[in-house]
Amino acid sequence: MSYVARSEAQSVVWRREFIRSFLERDLPQMGSNVSSVSLRRFWNMLAHYHGQIWNAAELARSLGVNESTTRRYLDLLAGVFMVRQVQPWFENLGKRQIKSPKIYIRDSGLLHSLLGIGSARELEHHPKVGASWEGYAIEEVLRSLRPDETYFWATHGGAELDLLLFIKGRRIGVEFKRADAPVVTASMRTAMGSLGLHRLFVVYPGTKAYSLAKNMEVLPLQTLSRRV
User: Fold this and answer.
1) Which residues, including other chains, have CB under 8 Å from residue 27's CB and lie 6 or more apart?
2) Which of 2, 77, 114, 127 could bond 82 through an S-S bridge, CB–CB 3.0 to 4.6 Å?
3) H-type alpha helices, the chain
4) Of all residues in the chain, what percent carry a pLDDT higher than 90?
C-alpha cells in the first residue's frame, strides 16, 4: 500500500496504478459508462480546484463539455468517496453569500499524484500545500467529531469560515491555518457574529493550544475532538 511503501518512489508508483485501475476496472464494474480517459482528465483538473468553490462553467469550457456533464462527473466521484463536496450554508444575513459547494480530493496521497507531486520536498514548495493540509485536516475533523450537519460559509465580500458544524444543537466554527501562530482575522470576527457561533476553533499543525479571544481558541489538530 502507498502509506507503508518502502520509498517515496514506490508510493508514487502504487498511487498511479491505483488511479489507473480504479478508472479502467473498478468504476466500470460499479456500472459507470463514463470514458476512463474523460474522467481522468476531469479528476486531474478537479485536483487543481481542491479547496476552492465549484465552478461548473469553467471546468466545462476546459473539458469541452456542457455543465451538466461536469456535474455528473463530480457526483460520480463523490458517490465513490473520492471527492468531498462541502455544501454552503446561507441564511438571511443581509450579505451576498456563496451558494456553490467547495471541492476536496478526499485522499491526500491521491491529490498529490493527480497534481504531479512526487515527494515531500516537492509538496513543501507547491502552491497547493496549504490546501492539501486543509483537506487532510477536514477529513480528520469530520471523522473524529461526526457532526450532525457540515457546511462551509462564505460571502462575496470575502468573509469565510472553512467549516460550520452543527453538533447537538450548537454551532461550531472551524478554521484551518497552516501557520506557526494563527491570529484573529476580520473574517473570523465576522463569522463569529454573523453566524452566532458558540465556539470558533482555529486548527493548525502546531503543538500548543492558546486563546485568541472570547470563545475563540487555537488548537493542534489532534486535540480538537477533546475540546468540542
Assistant:
1) 34, 36, 39, 76, 80
2) 77
3) 8-21, 27-29, 36-47, 56-63, 67-79, 108-114, 120-124, 129-145, 186-195, 224-227
4) 86
Give the count of beta carbons closer than 10 Å to the beta carbon of residue 120: 9
Gap between the Cα atoms of 102 and 78, Å rounded = 12
- Total-model pTM: 0.91
Phi, psi of 85 (to 5 degrees): -105, 115
Q: Smallest Cα–Cα separation from 161: which of 195, 111, 113? A: 195
- Give yes or no for a contact between 165 and 145, defined as CB atoms under 8 angstroms apart: yes
Nearest to 50 by CA among 139, 127, 132: 132
pLDDT per residue as tens digits for the range 111-133: 999 999 999 899 999 999 999 99
CB atoms within 10 A of CB 122: 14
Can you give the C-alpha Rg of the chain in angstroms? 19
Please count the other Cβ atoms lying within 10 Å of the Cβ belonging to residue 51. 20
